[in-house]
């Protein structure tokens, strides 16, 4: 059973870069046909898909966030990482990592404020 766990700072200052890591266990992130996503939920709003990195290493981002988003991976650690630059308070949300076979992390709260 694939399990995911998000980690990273819970507080980020405006204009800085938000960086979160998702550690995957129970399966390899390079397994064929697996896609690994970042998703967020701002307070009082619905889920917003941010982007994914595929088993092959290719990436795809939401057009609305593409200019500020980078997703990378460390296959030796079986981890993938989200970087969101130039954050504002509107980036405050619970951030989730997820696999395309239904596995989700528990989510991590990130607050953007001075």
The gist of it:
The protein has 114 residues and is mainly β. It has strands spanning 3-7, 11-12, 18-25, 35-41, 48-54, 59-61, 69-74, 79-84, 93-99, 108-112.
Walk me through the topology.
Elements: E1 3-7, E2 11-12, E3 18-25, E4 35-41, E5 48-54, E6 59-61, E7 69-74, E8 79-84, E9 93-99, E10 108-112
Parallel strand pairs: 2-10
Antiparallel strand pairs: 1-3, 3-8, 4-5, 4-9, 5-6, 7-8, 9-10
Which consecutive residue ranges, at least 5 long each, have pLDDT under 50?
none
Total number of helices: 0
Strand % is over 45%
Question: Biggest sheet, open or closed, and with what strands and sense?
Answer: 6 strands, mixed
What portion of residues is helical? Answer: under 10%
Given helix and strand content, the structural type is mainly beta
Q: What is the strand tally?
A: 10
Spatial sequence of strands, sheet with the most strands = 2-10-9-4-5-6
What is the element string, with H for helices and E for strands?
A: EEEEEEEEEE
* Span between termini: 40 Å
Q: Compute the average pLDDT.
A: 97
Shape: globular
Notes on the structure:
The chain is mainly β and 114 residues long. 0% of the residues lie in helices and 49% in strands. It has no helices and ten strands. It is globular. The termini are far apart. The model has no long low-confidence stretch (mean pLDDT 97).
Keyphrases for this structure?
114 residues, mainly beta, six-stranded mixed beta sheet, four-stranded antiparallel beta sheet, globular
